Amino acid sequence: MRTDDAFVDKLTIEDADARTRRQARELVAGVTRQRRWLDFVLGEAYHGDYDSMEHRLQEILRLGLYELLFQSTPTHAAVDEYVELAKQALRPGAGNLVNGVLRTIDRDREHIPTPDTGDDANDLALRYSHPTWMVQRWLDRFGLDETTELLRANNRRPMYSVRINPLRTSEADVAAWLDEHDVVNVDSPYLDRYLRLKRLQALIAGDLLDDGHVAVQDESAGLVVQLLDPQPGETLIDGCAAPGGKAMHAAARMEGTGTIYAVDRDEQRLERVETAAEAQGASEMVEAETADLRAWAARPEPPQGDRVLLDVPCTGMGVLAKRAGLRWRRSMEDLEEMAELQDELLDAAAQLVRPGGLLVYSTCTTEPEENERRVEAFLARHDGFAVESAEGHVPDEMVSDAGFLATFPHRHRMDGAFAARLRRDEA
Ligand SMILES: C[S@@+](CC[C@H](N)C(=O)[O-])C[C@H]1O[C@@H](n2cnc3c(N)ncnc32)[C@H](O)[C@@H]1O
């Protein structure tokens, strides 16, 4: 059993019904997220050297323990299932070992040991299943209580939000459809025409997504577009556009009029922008261009946008709840590497803003090196731009002291994201 994001996304079980597939996906995502905590508990319960245990046996133990600790699976069902799996996939002795370890933990589940390594960051990282370096950064920045809340938020099963697309349907029609199909939902407290849902299955089965009536989009992404505030008839340049979530939202806010240049260097991902534009009734507005933005902006006389959106590649440290395996793939070095590309993309985007126009720089990370530091460095290189506050565009509680949009999973129950409004001088 592989527990990485690509596998979670692609998981399909032939002949399994949708419910079984969903449960399997949730199980794999949960085990991936909780891996470090599960390994700690298993390591404490196992009498041998857990770290040198064969990989497949570790995976079976993790799955069984996850079901015991995080799902309401009755003990006998969870244990029997994984004992059987170990016997069939490995050998009879492996089944006995799984039985012994899982039952030992279950018998004493009120007294599962607390990590006590003498290092606060490491203890928290073990308990809430994150890399220690990440936790250390957040401890230094937020303190113990807030860091604990953030870690918990990163481990929650993500909620979904969808944007109702006014180019295709109305809020009343979507509400009536959801009512008719018993889909539990609540309005977003932060954005118009946004709904929060626990599951998307009904919308997928009912073709609401494929037909472009609604689009899945985290509220933090919706707030970035609200901050961009594109107007009907304008020219918008989206410099890192694929797969097009924000561009499509912008198209809806532009009421289907104006031009959106959707640039991305990844041809396949850019095709998804075209498909989305077709489905969502925005294809007339969208000019999709496969290109590296740095080269695209360096051409003689590139287009000039009233607004330019630069939603850069980043470490994704604001979306750890949704991307279960990401925390294990990131390192401190990524922050530096990303910063270099982010600066180059910002310089390119600056070439594309008309005098008096607006550049919005956005990320889905909570980390200052990719956010505030990049804006500060940009302003030091470009004295023709100034920060315009996010106040009045997004809820006050999400506006940082420096006037940026900054959302956090534990504070706002949405992805962590950042965005800055940078106004180019008129002259
Ligand atoms: C965070 S994603 C953009 C998400 C998109 N704005 C949306 O809302 O759906 C970043 C995108 O930047 C693109 N990208 C990375 N380097 C680029 C470059 N040098 N020029 C253009 N696009 C680039 C990636 O292919 C990726 O699709």
UniProtKB/TrEMBL annotation:
Catalytic site positions: 364
Keywords from the named record: Cytoplasm, Methyltransferase, RNA-binding, rRNA processing, S-adenosyl-L-methionine, Transferase
Record Gene3D superfamilies: NusB-like, Sun protein, domain 3, Vaccinia Virus protein VP39
InterPro entries: MeTrfase_RsmB-F_NOP2_cat, MeTrfase_RsmB-F_NOP2_dom, NusB-like_sf, NusB_RsmB_TIM44, RCMT, rRNA_ssu_MeTfrase_B, RsmB-like_ferredoxin, SAM-dependent_MTases_sf
Primary location recorded for the protein, binned into one broad class: cytoplasm
Cited Pfam families: Methyltr_RsmB-F (PF01189), NusB (PF01029), RsmF-B_ferredox (PF22458)
EC number: 2.1.1.176
Highest taxon listed in the record's lineage: Bacteria
GO BP annotations listed: regulation of DNA-templated transcription
Location relative to the cell: Cytoplasm
Enzyme class, first EC level, given as a word: transferase
Catalytic reaction(s) noted: cytidine(967) in 16S rRNA + S-adenosyl-L-methionine = 5-methylcytidine(967) in 16S rRNA + S-adenosyl-L-homocysteine + H(+)
SUPFAM superfamilies, A to Z: NusB-like (SSF48013), S-adenosyl-L-methionine-dependent methyltransferases (SSF53335)
Binding site for S-adenosyl-L-methionine: 240-246, 264, 292, 311
MF terms in GO: RNA binding; rRNA methyltransferase activity
SAM-dependent MTase RsmB/NOP-type domain boundaries: 150-425
One Gene Ontology term, aspect cellular component: cytoplasm
Membership in a protein family: Belongs to the class I-like SAM-binding methyltransferase superfamily. RsmB/NOP family.
Described function: Specifically methylates the cytosine at position 967 (m5C967) of 16S rRNA.
Protein name: 16S rRNA (cytosine(967)-C(5))-methyltransferase
Organism of provenance: Salinibacter ruber (strain DSM 13855 / M31)
Classification lineage: Bacteria, Pseudomonadati, Rhodothermota, Rhodothermia, Rhodothermales
Gene this chain is encoded by: sun
